[in-house]
Amino acid sequence: MEGQNVLEMDNDMSDEEFDVMDELYFVQSFDYLISELEIEESEMAKVLAQLVSKGWVKCLKEMDEEVPEAELDLAYNYANYFYLATKKGLLAHNGR
Q: Considering the entire predicted model, what is its pTM?
């Protein structure tokens, strides 16, 4: 029970973040996320950047190639990446 409380305290997920995480159990493109969710492009970019900064989502160049952290540029290249929830993100999403 104590472990569950710690998880809940670390899990500060907005409704938009939760909705995006719902789509990221499998690798998805930015365009797919825009088409599936009623979130504007600029807001989607912001939500994805927040999720990446929390370690809940990782960015991929291709469907199976992660973007090295040194090359990650969410300010300008967010629409060119693919996105996937991390294990930490899945735990946060399911613990909400």
A: 0.86
How many angstroms separate the CA atoms of 17 and 32, rounded? 16
Q: Return phi, psi of residue 86, to 5°.
A: -90, 170
Return the number of other C-beta atoms located less than 10 Å from residue 29's C-beta. 15
**pLDDT tens by residue, 17-35:** 999 999 999 999 999 999 9
Cα–Cα–Cα angle for 58, 72, 55, nearest 5°?
30
Angle at 59 between CA 56 and CA 62, to 5 degrees: 145
Distance of CA 41 to the CA centre of its chain: 14
User: Residue 66 and residue 7: Cα distance in Å, rounded?
Assistant: 26
Which one-letter DSSP state was computed for residue 78? G
